[in-house]
TrEMBL record:
Protein's UniProt name: Peptidase M43 pregnancy-associated plasma-A domain-containing protein
A Pfam cross-reference name: Peptidase_M43
Gene Ontology molecular-function annotations: metal ion binding; metallopeptidase activity
SUPFAM superfamilies on file: Metalloproteases ('zincins'), catalytic domain
Family per record: Belongs to the peptidase M43B family.
Superkingdom per UniProt: Eukaryota
């Protein structure tokens, strides 16, 4: 016998019962992993975890990123995907606060609200998803588009990694981040209600991987995020899944690219900041159309 979840039940599952963070961006393309390995070799870091940059940047780099936030909802109530103007502003502020240490500053250019059940509930890779994004996506490849909506699949969010794209191809339109509506600041997603799901997902958009990717012997190819054998749930101080001389440092449970509760996530590392700009210069800057808002104060 087939069992169909009602829309109300599906939305309930999407907002509650998340025992751990669930992100759909857990498989970076092989080409991007190879690029990350190359960038790691090029970084001005001494090898080994917990290393610091050999030389500090003479002038900290900054980057303005045009931001377009699209709220897509089933109907205009808070439990059916709708978020208010204030919610959008709060999410925007959290993004800027969380990325401040990297020099990235988001410039909110567009806010849209769309009532469309099929789009709001579209699963990844569906016709509805591409239709929605062809209709709503704004700007070039250096513009960040975030779709805040019900996701149906039990995910808190997912995001595309940077890659080579042909303008106006499906891959171009799909570029951006999808974030569960209830994860915005003050939302109903317990433990994930401070807006840091968007921060985590946007980290992927910039080309950062999960800190636990590949386990102890894998990693995110960033030298100053200690090796981590498994995704973190909650905020377990002292968690140390990779031990021994090869793996100094406890798990980076406070890193935005782990799976910890929002309240536990507080940092990007210096190595992640450098990687973000390496990826930006490789993929988004050359394919963007936003030179007028680009600020480069130093070279890496
Ligand atoms: Zn993720």
């Amino acid at each position: 016998m087939k069992f169909h979840l009602s829309l109300a039940t599906t939305l309930l599952l999407a907002t509650e019962g998340l025992s751990r963070r669930t992100c759909g961006s857990d498989h970076p393309p092989v080409e991007l992993i190879e690029k990350a390995i190359l960038f790691r070799a090029m970084s001005k870091f001494k090898p080994g975890p917990n290393s610091r940059p050999v030389e500090e940047d003479p002038v900290p780099r900054t980057q303005v990123v045009p931001l377009h936030i699209h709220n897509v909802f089933v109907n205009q109530t808070r439990d059916q995907g709708y978020i208010t103007h204030e919610d959008v502003q709060n999410q925007f502020k959290v993004l800027n606060d969380n990325f401040a240490s990297t020099g990235v500053k988001f410039d909110l250019k567009t806010v849209t609200h769309t009532e469309d059940k099929a789009w709001a509930m579209a699963s990844r890779g569906s016709i509805s998803e591409i239709n929605m994004k062809k209709a709503l996506r704004r700007g070039g490849y250096a513009d960040l588009n975030i779709y805040i909506r019900p996701l149906r699949s039990g995910l808190l969010g997912y995001c595309t990694f940077p890659t080579e794209v042909v303008k106006d191809s499906d891959k171009f339109f799909l570029d951006g981040c999808d974030v569960l509506f209830s994860s915005v600041p003050g939302g109903s997603a317990t433990y994930y209600d401070e807006g840091k799901t968007a921060t985590h997902e946007v980290g992927h958009w910039f080309g950062l991987f999960h800190t636990f990717q590949g386990g102890c012997s894998g990693g995110d190819f960033v030298d100053d995020t200690p090796a981590e054998g498994s995704a973190t749930s909650g905020c377990p101080l002292g968690k140390d899944t990779c031990r021994g001389d090869m793996y100094p440092g406890e798990d980076p449970i406070h890193n935005y690219m782990d799976y910890s509760y929002d309240a536990c996530m507080t940092e990007f590392t210096e190595g992640q900041r450098v990687r973000l700009y390496q990826m930006w210069d490789q993929y988004r800057l050359p394919q963007g159309s936003t030179n007028r808002t680009t600020t480069r104060t130093s070279m890496h």
